[in-house]
């Protein structure tokens, strides 16, 4: 019985460092991916990993008795959980027909297709630069 209790104590003593490192590395990794443009800050993945890793780091800090760190990590997890709920609600909500955006065909064409080639003053003799607005009749 004593050996079983000792083994349980050893497993419990390993729980805090493992949770702490998983929480720290996971939070750092998704933040790095978000800052490098690989994840959107409002994505389900970013929110879920922040919530889970913040919770892991918070539990680890609480097991160590580091209450300020536990509070900060659990607050981080709460923000991640809230963002996750918002993201999931947004995905599940049907889009009303009258709010679907209409894009005209002309708006999706390239600038050169809709406005012709860009003519600079030096490329054609006597031509006005097409990148500057032409004078209008309303100008004094």
From TrEMBL:
Residues 18-91 form the CBU-0592-like domain. InterPro entries: CBU_0592-like (IPR058058). Keywords: Membrane, Transmembrane, Transmembrane helix. It comes from the Bacteria. The lineage of its organism: Bacteria, Bacillati, Actinomycetota, Actinomycetes, Mycobacteriales. The chain crosses the membrane at residues 14-32, 44-64. This is CBU-0592-like domain-containing protein. It comes from Gordonia desulfuricans.
């Amino acid at each position: 019985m004593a050996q079983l209790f000792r083994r349980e104590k050893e497993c419990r003593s390993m729980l805090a460092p493992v949770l702490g490192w998983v929480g720290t590395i996971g939070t750092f990794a998704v933040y790095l991916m978000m800052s490098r443009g690989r994840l959107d800050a409002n994505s389900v993945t970013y929110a879920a990993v922040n919530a889970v890793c913040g919770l892991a780091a918070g539990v680890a800090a609480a097991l160590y008795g580091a209450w300020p760190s536990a509070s900060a990590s659990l607050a981080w997890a709460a923000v991640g959980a809230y963002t996750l709920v918002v993201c999931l609600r947004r995905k599940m909500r049907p889009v009303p027909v009258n709010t679907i955006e209409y894009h005209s065909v002309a708006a999706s064409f390239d600038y050169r297709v809709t406005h012709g080639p860009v003519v600079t003053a030096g490329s054609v003799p006597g031509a006005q630069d097409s990148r500057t607005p032409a004078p209008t009749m309303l100008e004094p």
